[in-house]
Design a protein that fits this description.
518 residues; mainly alpha; 1% strand
């Protein structure tokens, strides 16, 4: 294990990240005429937090490089442990430095009397800023704003929230893949789900660098198409179009408005975003197969077919429940709100068009189940992933058949390929660890938060580790996570990181054996 080189390579990532912190300043180009008329002082004050954050992040990269770089490490090879370490510290640093604009925007109190600037956070600034940043970079979409930032005074910060989700959706992994193409052994271990193969560890192209570039192009093109559709067909202004494009493609869910898509009350926008939420739940490998014309691969993909089937069943079930047990006037309204919320929750996007906490318990149970399952491996979605559910179901079926015919050898197959027992065991271990962490976290929150209901605690934990955002009861679509105390916010931030890094990556760092030489 080479800690020095791991931190040296991380310093390169931090330097690139400092450049992204300047991008929100350019968001003034996307604001419409109402915001374009803002006086120059307001624009400058909005830009200060990002300038300071970028400078501080850049100098931090210099410091990390200074203390970690040496000529002797240049030819050192990195392995699996180094990949785990780099993956973890990259996401942690992204959360820390991504919090700086929130912190500096909250500390601009001297300007408040002159331009009526409302600070982002008035209390517990560092923890709240870190939570908001981690929620963005992990594409969770949970918020702790007590007062949602106004577009007039904080449009750049609203842009940054969605940009962090776009970067976190797949951008950070791609940045690592492109910057560190020579450490494929370690990075492949933590990037496999982002590449579109989940537990099978299979690349869509032979070379890791080529895979990164291919995924980046697909990701950017989908974002651009969605932007134009929202702008020209949805009739959104350019700012709202780019913000919601970032948040949709990344399965993030941050919006320009406190009540998310519900504020817009625009059927065209809802249907466009619904389609792209579905696309974001699909493995990027599927898009690659479409581009290369390899349709046979798509037909053979078990996870893709299951993802489509699951969402059809979820939408149909929700529409039936809402039509028969809720007060929507027409079947069209039931379909409109039911289908949107079904796709939003199952893909972990977290956009809302209705406060689904008011729906019948049957509907909420369905949403909670699919919240945990999530979308396809290799997509931007969270949750345990459909491929793992498939593996477990087939494993159970295999065990039943073995009881009937013990002399016959059965194997678990995904995409018509037999999986090694090691892969199946890894999936079962993942699910056990997932359930164990959720159970402990729910108990901790119940202890720490005497005024929080059990369902609120459970949905907050599941929504955080599944990177969804909204939950039920006290963390419903019309509420947020500001009701929690500091220890709970730290715990939930940790769960968001765990969910985004597929649990094993960060948990490995807590094992003493991880830090041993061999």
């Amino acid at each position: 294990m080479n800690i020095a080189k791991s931190f040296y390579l991380t310093s390169i990532f931090i330097r690139y990240y400092s450049y992204f912190l300047l991008v929100p300043i350019l968001s003034i180009l996307f604001t419409d005429s109402n915001f374009g008329s803002m006086n120059q002082s307001k624009n400058l004050i909005q830009a200060y937090p990002f300038m300071l954050s970028s400078l501080l992040t850049f100098f931090s990269s210099v410091i990390v490089k200074k203390f970690s770089y040496s000529e002797s490490i240049q030819n050192d090879e990195l392995g699996r442990k180094d990949g785990f370490l780099i993956a973890s510290i990259v996401w942690i640093f992204a959360g820390i430095f991504g919090a700086l604009p929130y912190i500096f925007s909250s500390l601009l109190l001297p300007f408040q009397d002159t331009i009526n600037l409302v600070p982002i956070f008035e209390n517990n600034i560092i923890i709240n800023s870190f939570f908001e940043s981690v929620s963005g970079i992990t594409t969770t979409g949970a918020s702790v704003f007590t007062n949602f930032p106004s577009l007039e005074h904080h449009s750049m910060l609203i842009f940054w929230r969605s940009l962090t989700q776009w970067l976190g959706g797949i951008g950070i992994i791609l940045l690592v893949l492109i910057i560190f193409p020579r450490i494929s052994v370690g990075i492949m271990q933590i990037a496999s789900d982002q590449e579109g193969t989940g537990p099978q560890k299979e690349r869509i192209t032979p070379r890791l660098y080529q895979t990164g570039i291919t995924l980046l192009v697909i990701y950017a093109v989908i974002t651009l198409i969605l932007f134009f559709l929202l702008f020209f067909i949805g009739n959104l202004n350019s700012f709202d179009s780019i913000v919601h494009s970032f948040s949709t493609v990344s399965s993030g869910g941050f919006s320009s408005y406190p009540l998310s898509i519900e504020t817009l009350n625009n059927f065209s926008v809802e249907m466009i975003i619904l389609c792209f939420m579905f696309l974001s739940g699909i493995s990027f490998a599927i898009f690659y197969f479409v581009i290369t014309g390899n349709l046979q691969k798509i037909w053979e993909n078990s996870e893709f077919k299951t993802f489509v089937l699951f969402n059809i069943l979820l939408v149909f079930s929700l529409v039936v429940i809402l039509q028969n047990q809720y007060n929507f006037e027409t079947i069209i309204d039931s379909f409109r709100y039911g289908s949107f919320q079904a796709l939003s929750i199952s893909t972990g996007t977290g956009f809302t068009t209705y406060n689904f906490d008011q729906w019948p318990s049957h509907a909420k149970i369905l949403l909670l189940i699919f919240l945990v399952i999530g979308g396809s491996s290799g997509s931007t979605t969270g949750g345990i992933k459909i491929v793992r559910v498939l593996i477990v179901v087939k494993r159970v079926y295999q065990e039943i058949r073995c009881r009937i015919s013990p002399n016959v050898v059965y194997t678990v197959k995904i995409n018509n390929k037999s999986l090694d027992d090691e892969v199946v065991t890894g999936v079962l271990s993942f699910l056990f660890l997932f359930i164990f962490i959720c159970a402990i976290s729910i108990l901790l929150i119940i202890i720490l938060e005497p005024n929080i209901t059990s369902l609120s605690a459970a949905s907050a934990v599941l929504s955080s580790i599944a990177n969804v955002g909204p939950g039920f009861e006290q963390v419903n679509a019309h509420s947020n996570y500001s009701i929690f105390s500091t220890p709970t916010k730290i715990l939930l931030s940790f769960l968001m990181m765990l969910g985004r890094l597929e649990i094993f990556t960060m948990i490995a760092l807590f094992l003493p054996s991880f830090w041993k030489k061999y």
